Amino acid sequence: MQSKRVLIKISGESLAGDKGYGIDTEILERVAREIKTVHSQDVQIGIVIGGGNIFRGVSAAAVGMDRVSADYMGMLATVINSLALQDALERQKIKTRVMSAIAMHSICEPFITRRATRHMEKGRLIIFACGTGNPYFTTDTAAALRAKEIGAEVIIKATKVDGVYDKDPMKFPDAKLYKELKFMDALKDNLRVMDATALSLCMEENIPIRVFNINTPGNIEKVVFDESIGTWVR
Question: How far is residue 146 from each of residues 86, 91, 128, 227, measured CA to CA in Å?
Answer without folding.
Answer: 18, 25, 8, 25
